[in-house]
Amino acid sequence: MGTQKSNEVSSGTGRRALLGAAVLGAGGAVLGVTGTARADGARHGGAHGGLRSLPRPTIVGHRGASGYRPEHTIGSYQLALDMGADIVEAGDLVPTKDGHLVCRHEPEIGGTTDVADHPEFADRKRTKLLDGVSTTGWFTEDFTLAELKTLRAVERIPANRPHNTLYDGRWEVPTFEEVLQWQDEQTRRSGKQVWIYPELKHPTYFRKQGLPLEERVAKLLRMHGKDGRTSPVVIQSFEPTSIERLNKLVDNPLVVLLSSANSRPWDFVETGDPRTVADLVKPAGLREIASYAQGIGPTLDLVIPRDAEGNLTEPTTLVTDAHRVGLILHPWTLRNENPFLPADFRDGTEADAYGDVFGAYRAYFATGIDGVFTDQPDTGLLAREDFLNG
Ligand code: G3P
Ligand code: CA
C-alpha cells in the first residue's frame, strides 16, 4: 500500500443534496487555530511561524492554476499568482539524473510532457517499481537537465480540461532554482511577498537511487536565504520521515501530507513501521507529527468522508484533533469539474463540466480547515469571500 491519492480521478453520476449541519455550523471557527502551541515551538518561534501571516482559509494554487494551464509550468504558477492565490504549489519536486530539482507531479513524465514525441528518447522508456507500483514511461531521473529542457509541458487531463491543450508546448519544465528566482522577481514586481509550497516527491525512492531530495532543497533554500521560520516557503511531503529530516536541516514551516486512511506512507513500508494514515490521524499520531511539523495536508475525505455513492457524510473530528495539538490543516484538492467533486455536488455527468463547487467549498470551509489546495484559485477566492461574508 503506497501513497495513492483518493481524489485524483473519479467518475460517475450523482445527485445534488444540501449538506445540513456541516454547512451551517462552525463558521467562525475557521479564522483562528484554537489548539495549544506545538511542543517544540521554541525552534520555530511559535505554532506556525510565518504561516500565520497568510489569509484564512488559505487558498493554495495547486500545481499553479492547473485548472486553466498545464500543471507545474511558469505559466500555471503565474496565473495562480495573478488570480490572487495566497500561496502557489511550485512545485512537486523530483530530481534529474545530474541532481537538479525540477517541477513535475511525478518522476514519470509521459503524461505531462511531449517526451513521447521525441524519437531521440524512445529508448529511455522504462518500467519501474515506484513505491511498489509498476509504472511504465519516462522518468526524470534518467534525463539530464539539459535533456529535460528540450521537452515541453502538455495538459495532463485533456478529457477534463480540453481548453488547456491550447497551451501544450508553450512552457518548459521549470527547475526549483528558477521557481525561487521567479518568486523573488514577482515579489519585487508586485510589492507583495509571494509564497510557495513545494512538495518533495517519493523521497525514499530517490534516496535509494543516490538522489536524496531533502539536502538539495535545504541547500537551495539556504543559498536563497529562504530557510528560516518566517521564510515564505512551506514544504510538504507524504513521507513523515522526510519531513522529520527536513526539520533538522531548515526552519521553514513543514506539512505532512496524509492520503487515504488505509494507506501507509512509503517510508513506513520501507522501514517496517506498521502504522497507516488511520493511525497517524489519531491524537497520538497527530501529537507526534506536531513535534516536527506545523501542519497536515489530509485528503478531503479525511475531513468529510464520502459514503458508498460518493456523497459527503458528516465531518470527522480531524480538524478539532489537529488544532488541539497546534497543527493547521490544508486539505487537497478542490477542483471545479464534476468527476472530482463529491457526488452530491456534481451537475450532470460531463467530465469537463463544472458542478456546484461553491456548495462543496461551503461544506469544507465550515469544518474549520485553515486552507485548501485548489486547481482553480479564482473560484477558491470567491468561495472564501462568500464564506467570510456569511
Ligand atoms: O500537495 C498537496 C496535494 O498536492 C497532494 O497531492 O498528488 O497533487 O501532489 P498531489
Ligand atoms: Ca503536491
TrEMBL record:
Signal peptide residue numbers: none
Keyword vocabulary terms for this entry: Glycerol metabolism, Hydrolase, Signal
Reaction catalyzed: a sn-glycero-3-phosphodiester + H2O = an alcohol + sn-glycerol 3-phosphate + H(+)
Annotated GP-PDE domain residues: 57-384
EC code(s) of this entry: 3.1.4.46
Similarity-based family: Belongs to the glycerophosphoryl diester phosphodiesterase family.
UniProt name for this protein: glycerophosphodiester phosphodiesterase
Organism: Streptomyces djakartensis
